[in-house]
Write a structure and sequence with these properties.
Layout: E1 4-5, E2 21-32, E3 35-46, E4 50-54, H1 61-68, E5 76-81, E6 84-86, H2 91-96, E7 99-102, H3 114-119, H4 123-126, H5 130-143, H6 158-171, E8 176-180, H7 188-203, E9 207-211, H8 215-221, E10 224-229, E11 232-237, H9 244-252, E12 270-280, E13 286-296, E14 300-304, H10 311-319, E15 326-331, E16 334-335, H11 341-346, E17 349-352, H12 356-360, H13 367-372, E18 382-383, E19 386-387, H14 389-402, H15 419-432, E20 437-441, H16 449-464, E21 468-472, H17 476-482, E22 485-490, E23 493-498, H18 505-515, E24 518-520, H19 532-538
Parallel strand pairs: 4-9, 4-10, 7-8, 8-9, 14-21, 14-22, 17-20, 20-21, 23-24
Antiparallel strand pairs: 1-11, 2-3, 2-5, 5-6, 10-11, 12-13, 12-15, 15-16, 18-19, 22-23
The structure holds adenosine-5'-triphosphate.
The site of adenosine-5'-triphosphate has 19 residues, from strand 3, helix 1 and helix 15.
């Protein structure tokens, strides 16, 4: 039976299940123009536990956490920390009271050392020298974070950077850590290592609020789960008695989708050809080298890799944001290597960027203007050489409807949408132009299980109609499920390939750390792998 209880809030500071309460949010309401982001929300986090917060896109999770982190003021409701009711005026206030936030997008300066990053802005605590170094080492040892104070951050892989972010908030005295989708960028082995770190934190009496759309992970790491839907608390669940399916049903009222694609639609018509592509950094060092592949009509080619191994540069080269130092790119038989981005777009290249804020949206512009972005000269946005705002607005309404973008209208700014809804808008815009080749970088990052299923369906449908797709995703289930062909990128080279029909996420994750090359064979008993730490330092 699913242990989901309609939530009711105990009085502030009351012990729940015999343990003291670290954070108590009671009756929180927050309104934005046209939207009630939080309506009478209750959240009670016990000390020494991992408390997951789940809910569909736009449910109100980030808003609630911004309130707890002092970034936004609630219109109604109270916040109690360790049983004491508080008013938080700013993040500095929240930090001073033991709340730490680890953002999904890391906020570290690459050219500084770990120590410099950690002490930045907190010099008053332990200075900037030996005392600070000792404190960092102490925290690292205590929670098994494996952080080395004198390493440059640019030398660290994604998982190690995340541990630095965690250490940074602990250094400032956090006793409750908010982790916003912390596993989105990690391979399976790194997820296991993170969860081990979280268990260490718990055992020392710290609390963690864990936001995620990955319900399997939520069930494996959380002690308690609060589900919010359309801005209000639906209830709490206990993982031992709840399945992912039940959780998904609570969140979005539907079953868990699967990315698996039964039938192959791969044709022998090449759409995109990349031959011996090489891209160099300013000093002449290769960022991409000897990249060769072909994607046919109806084929999804998945690129697996730990972030930072050349995926971003490969996408930049394909869309025309960076130009190759040597090698060629061919689109439908025509060489496009020197073409600018706009010309490639007009020839049918769709682009779902990995960084939706930098390359996907104009955050301060209304939704309908964002619908035009990247497609100014195409229908329905343009009539001859003129923009056609009316047609663009109408089409934006259609996309909002078809992709279930939760918004009070098309005149609100993109910044006011929740992260997942921003992503749905971009996917809708790109798919609407019926591209012949789609670059899909993390197409479902940050979207809930329902929207994920819808995006997978749109991609599958277009693939049946002949779309060629380059898929980059840190979600290995998605990558394996959607791809017809899989290649592994490591240090700027395609080092291995795998059959998505047989490979497991663990085997692929292991190859991504550079542990295997050539054709990856599925093994009944997975081989002994390198530890995540060892792999990741090399896999930059
Ligand atoms: N600054 C803002 N101005 C206007 N509306 C906002 C603002 N911030 C959030 N909203 C709206 O509040 C609602 C809740 O958004 P929130 O970002 O909290 O959702 P979420 O649960 O974190 O979603 P996701 O899983 O997509 O990140 C959404 O309808 C969103 O559009």
């Amino acid at each position: 039976m699913c242990a989901i209880n309609a939530s009711s809030s105990p009085p502030a500071g009351a012990a729940v299940h015999g343990q003291a309460t670290a954070v108590e949010l009671a009756g929180i309401t927050k309104r934005f123009p046209g939207v009630v982001a939080n309506h009478d929300i209750h959240l009670s986090v016990r000390k020494g536990t991992v408390h997951a917060l789940v809910g569909e896109n736009g449910a109100g999770k980030s808003t609630l956490m911004k309130i707890l982190y002092g970034m936004q003021k609630p219109d109604e409701g109270t916040i109690s920390l360790d049983g004491e009711q508080v008013t938080l005026h700013s993040p500095a206030d929240a930090i001073a009271r033991g709340i730490g936030m680890v953002h999904q997008h890391f906020m570290l300066a690459d050219n500084l050392t770990v120590l410099e990053n950690v002490v930045l802005g907190s010099e008053k605590l332990y200075g900037i020298g030996a005392k600070a170094r000792r404190r960092i080492q102490e925290i690292s040892d205590r929670y098994g974070l494996g952080v080395r104070p004198d390493v440059l951050v640019e030398e660290l892989g994604v998982a190690a950077r995340q541990r630095v972010e965690i250490l940074k908030v602990l250094y400032r005295g956090a006793t409750t850590l908010i982790l916003d989708e912390p596993t989105a960028v990690l391979v399976p082995q790194e997820v296991d290592a993170l969860f081990a770190n979280l268990r260490e934190l718990k055992s020392e009496g710290l609390s963690v609020i864990f936001i995620s759309h990955k319900l399997g992970e939520v069930l494996s790491v959380a002690d308690e789960i609060t589900v919010i839907r359309r801005g209000t608390t639906v209830g709490t669940a206990v993982p031992a008695e709840t399945t992912p399916r039940q959780l998904a049903e609570m969140m979005v009222g539907s079953e868990l989708p699967t990315p698996e694609t039964a039938e192959s639609t791969v044709t022998d018509r090449p759409v995109l050809g990349v031959d011996k592509l090489r891209l160099e950094a300013p000093g002449g060092k290769a960022i991409l080298d000897d990249i060769t592949f072909t994607i046919h009509a109806g084929e999804v080619l998945g690129i697996a890799g730990v972030e930072g191994n050349g995926q971003t540069e490969l996408v930049d080269a394909l869309i025309g944001l960076k130009h190759a130092d040597s090698g060629t790119i061919t689109l439908a038989g025509e060489e496009v290597t020197a073409w600018p981005t706009r010309k490639r777009r007009e020839q049918g290249v769709g682009y779902i960027p990995e960084d939706r804020h930098r390359h996907g949206l104009l955050l301060e512009a209304p939704l309908w203007e964002n619908r035009i972005l990247g497609h100014v000269t195409e229908k329905p946005n343009a009539k001859g050489v003129w923009l056609d705002p009316k047609a663009a607005q109408e089409d934006t309404r259609r996309i909002v409807e078809a992709y279930d973008v939760r918004t009070p209208g098309i005149d609100v700014t993109a910044a006011s949408l929740s992260g997942g809804n921003q992503q749905k808008l971009i996917v809708g815009r790109e798919m609407s132009h019926k591209p012949r080749f789609l670059i899909a970088a993390h197409p479902t990052r940050g979207v809930d299980v329902g929207a994920q299923a819808a995006i997978w369906d749109h991609i599958r449908q277009a693939r049946r109609e002949g779309l060629a797709v380059l898929l980059i995703s840190a979600d290995l289930d998605e990558l394996i499920g959607l791809s017809d062909t899989l290649r592994v990128i490591y240090n700027g080279r395609l080092v291995a390939d795998a059959d998505p029909a047989t490979i497991t996420p663990e085997e692929l994750g292991s190859a991504m750390t550079g542990a295997a090359t050539g054709h990856l064979e599925h093994e009944e008993t997975p081989e002994i792998r390198k530890s995540p730490e060892a792999g990741e330092d090399e896999a930059r």
